[in-house]
Design brief:
The protein is mainly beta and 129 residues long. It has 1 helix and 11 strands, in the order βββββββββαββ. Strands 2, 4, 5, 6, 9, 10 and 11 form a 7-stranded mixed beta sheet that branches. A 4-stranded antiparallel beta sheet has the order 1-3-8-7, with no helix packed on it. The longest helix has 6 residues.
């Protein structure tokens, strides 16, 4: 199970952290990622982390977002900096085994079958003044 926390309202240019705590699964050997879906838009993979530490970021969040993982706390984080109004969306964390994804980029860019991974419940992030 994945339980998300954080999210909320942030001003343009501000920072926010969204967390995703895993239970009944150890994140050590898994691929983890953050996805978002804005109203009227398709889900997009924005930040993914492979089991060997490689990362992938979609262009729109590069240099502003950071994905990280704490194996002791079994938690994945998304640090959002320099937030923009276009970052407003419902954010989801996901965990997949290497059976289903081959790289961080693959996890973020392929059309993942949600039945083959674990997904968080979603966190609303709204960027507005």
């Amino acid at each position: 199970q994945l339980a998300q926390s954080g999210g909320g309202l942030v001003q343009p240019g501000g920072s926010l952290t969204v967390s995703c705590a895993a239970s009944r699964v150890s994140l050590d050997d898994y691929f983890v990622g953050w996805f978002r879906q804005a109203p009227g838009k398709e889900r997009e993979g924005i930040a993914c982390l492979s089991n060997d530490g490689s990362t992938y970021y979609t262009n729109s969040v590069k240099a502003r977002f950071t994905i990280s993982k704490d194996n002791v706390k079994n938690t994945v984080y998304l640090q959002i900096n320099s937030a923009k109004p276009e970052d407003t969306a419902l954010y989801y964390c996901a965990v997949y085994s290497e059976v289903w994804v081959t790289s961080a980029e693959d996890m973020c860019t392929s059309d993942l079958n949600t039945n083959f991974g674990r997904w968080g419940q979603g966190s609303q992030v709204t960027v507005s003044s």
